[in-house]
Structure formats: C-alpha cells, structure tokens
Write a structure and sequence with these properties.
Layout: H1 7-26, H2 29-44, H3 56-81, H4 91-108, H5 113-124, H6 129-136, H7 140-161, H8 165-169
Length: 174
Amino acid sequence: MTALPPLDELYRLHRQRALAVVRRIVKDADEAEDVVQEVFVRLYSKTVHFDGKAACTTWLHRILVNSSINCLRAKKRRGKLETPLTFVEDPEAKAVGNERHALLLEALQHLSEQHRLVVTLRDVRGYSYPDIARMLGLPEGTVKSALNRGRTRLAKVMAAKEPEALEWAAADDD
C-alpha cells in the first residue's frame, strides 16, 4: 500500500491543479476555493482514506470531482429553499414568499428531532450524506432513510396547510 505524502507537501504540489479542476466544474472561483479548502481539511482530519489502489493524483482528482458535484447539488437545493435577497416590489409576491417561509418553519416543527436535523443539514445547509452521518453519529443508510421520511412528512404537513406547497416541498434533485 502506497502512503500519501505529508499533507503540507500534498497541498503545495496539488493546490493549483485542484483549483483548476474544481473551477471547471463549479464555474465560480470563490466556490472553488471553498471546495478545495474543504477537501484538504477532510484529508487533514483523516475523514477520507487513501487505500493505495490508485495513484495519489487520481485519488485526489476523484475526491475533488465528487466534492465539486456535491457543492453544485447543495447550491441547487439551497436555491430552492432560500428566499432571494433582492427586494420584491410586488407586495403580493412578497406576502406569498413570507407565508411560504413561515409555513416551512412551522412544518419543520412537526418533524421528529432527527428528521428535522437531517432535512436541515442536507436541504438547507447542503452537507453530504457522509458528513451528516458523521455529525449525528448515524449510519449513512439511516441518514438517507431519515431524510426521505422527513421530506415526505414535511410535504404532507405543508400540503395540509397549503395544497400547492406539496409540489414545492417534495421537489428533490437526488
């Protein structure tokens, strides 16, 4: 089994290439910096393991690509849930947005603590399944199951209060 070079050397040797790879995927220099930094933090904290089956550069490239894709997915989910920060001139549209936000917050209170945490961490904060599993001390399969059940319950609660909310709450890109 081949060992990884020291982390500082790995970072120094591969940072520029890593940024280039991630920038091509996420198409945003700031996001790319964040993804590369997150990957190297994960390497430093030993949450990712190198098994030596592939070259170190191939292994690192795969981690960067997967992390970039996760970043895009999280950004897409956040876009569905976040209210735009721009001012809405139309009072009716603003009222609908405020009502929907209040409905979501209220509906989240109807979930169990585990479901609420998993839905919030995944759909609002954009964490990956392995990250959520690690944070909550749960198996990844349990996280996926709790997310599915939480989303389903959230959609039902929202639909009971606002029927057209079912379509919005059940939207899923996974």
